[in-house]
Structures are given as C-alpha cells and as structure tokens.
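thoughts on my protein:
***
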Amino acid sequence: MIFRSIGALVAGVAVGTAFVATDASAATSRSHWVTATAVCASPLPVYDATLRKGPLGIRNTGTDPIFVSCSVPVDDATDQIGGDVQVTLRSFGAAATVNCTLTSGSRYGNSSGSVAYSTFVPASPGDTLVSMSSIDRKAYYGSFNFSCVLPRDVEMGTIWVYETSAGDGL
C-alpha cells in the first residue's frame, strides 16, 4: 500500500512538472483562425433574412449591401500593439469592392479610432483578403472590432488574427 502511494506521488509530480512552462518554451507570437459565423453578426435581425450563415462563412444573398460587424477574440498576454487581422472574402457572382472599418480597443478604455480598408473581390470563384495591419488595442482587454459592407453574393469567411509578445509571454 505504501508503494502504491509513493508510485502515485511520483506519477503526480511527473505530470505536474510536464505542465510547468519554462522561459525557453515561451513564444513571441500567436495566431488563430475563426470563421465569420463565430464572431460576426448583422446590425439588425431584419438583415438576417438575406444573410446566409453557414459553417464556412456569412454570405449576402440579397440585392442590397449589408453591414456585417465582427469582434475577434484576442489574447491578453500579448502586447497591445502590432496585431494583424485578415479577412477572407469570396464572390459567388460578379466582382465587387468590399469596404471595411476597423476600430480596436474597448468602450471601457481607450480606443484607437477607426481605420478604413477597401479591397477588390474578383468574380466567382475569386478569393481575396482584406488585411488590417499594425493594430494597437490600447489596453490588454481591448479587442479587434470591424465592420464590412458585403455586396450581393459576397461571403466573409475565415478571419486570421496574429498577435506578438516582445516579452515572450505567450
């Protein structure tokens, strides 16, 4: 019975030691992907009638352009500046221009203001990216928030977030 207890203790210490991170294993950057359906929504429920929300993205199936707003989760262990956000856009019809506005930060802290981005999406089956670079979150609890005007037959798909940590704190 004593040997079982000692064996369990040794195993527990070994497992616990495996979960302790060392400075040598700390990272300087982190990236993650989410789909627009996970973090984006229309401004009013009435617009949901012409937005097709599928597992890979949100597509405007109506005739009028629709604003889609997104708030991407961030890591509070990263630096507050130097973040990048890329949004994949695809046309299922004619070529179109997509306009986006990014506001980072938080309503409860500092905001970095708004920055406008615009990109051309080629005709079906074309994909393109809108890239929003060097974003300053202004606070560790700030987030990356943006709205894009989706023209007819344009889908917002994968959103990629890249953050850095100069102190290797990730």
